[in-house]
Structure formats: C-alpha cells, structure tokens
Specification:
Length: about 140
C-alpha cells in the first residue's frame, strides 16, 4: 500500500503498519494533528518495512511511525537498520504497537526509537509525542 498525500513544504511522516485499518487510523490522527499544530503534514503509508526502506533510497522523511510486529521485516529490524545507517539515523522513529510492557519500551529505546505509542491510539498521546518533534524539526 503506497498512499500519498502531498502538500508543498510539508512535514513528511511515514506510517508503517501491516494492518490497513491501523494505517487509516493513523492517517486520521495525522490530519487532526495537522490542524492542531498548524503545519502541513504529508503522510505516506507502507504495509511493510521493505517498502519503507526502498522508498528511503530516493526520498526523505522527517518522521517514521513504525509498527514493531510485521511480517518479513519487523519494526525492530527496520529501526535498527535506520539507526545504523548514517543516511537515515537522523530520522526520528516512534514505535506504534500493542506491545506495552516496560521491557518492550526499554527495548524500543535501545533500538533507537525516540518514542513509543501503544495501541489503541489516544490522540492526546500522539499530540504530546509528535508536537515537540515537529517543532524541533521545523524550527517552530
């Protein structure tokens, strides 16, 4: 799945989840966030980590919201690949997952994730997690 919404000079967020319903929910949250922070947000959705990695070969992103449990290439593997590559390690990664224990969160940090959002998503948590990243990245 490769759904793109494009706005000129927008903050670019990749949504990566093997469940299309979760992608739709994240897209809805991003539209709400866009209205709250007053910054245009472009999203692109991927149903697996391989497609994200191929996309990054020719495109840039400002943030990645990444499911941890996916077939083929797990979110953990994707995060580790990103954080070990000088071309991509600057991109903040937020895990979005149903894995909610303190151990899972610690492992996410160890892998290089900047944040951790658990499913089901609570919009306030998304705003609180993403707004500082957007402001830091855009200089607002």
């Amino acid at each position: 799945m490769d759904n793109t919404k494009t706005t000129h000079s927008a903050f670019k967020i990749a949504l990566v989840d093997d469940n299309s319903i979760n992608l739709e929910l994240l897209e809805t949250h991003m539209r709400m966030l866009e209205n709250q922070v007053g910054i245009a947000i472009d999203t692109i959705s991927f149903e697996n980590g391989n497609d994200l990695m191929h996309y990054l070969e020719e495109h840039t992103l400002d943030l990645i919201l990444l499911d941890r449990m996916m077939p083929e290439l797990s979110g953990d593997e994707v995060c580790e690949m990103l954080k070990n590559d000088a071309d991509y390690q600057h991109i903040p990664v937020i895990f979005v997952t149903s894995l909610y224990s303190d151990e899972h969160k610690s492992e996410g940090k160890r892998l290089g994730a900047e944040g951790y959002l658990t499913k089901p998503y609570i919009h306030t948590d998304i705003v609180n997690m993403l707004t500082p990243i957007i402001e830091r990245t855009t200089g607002r």
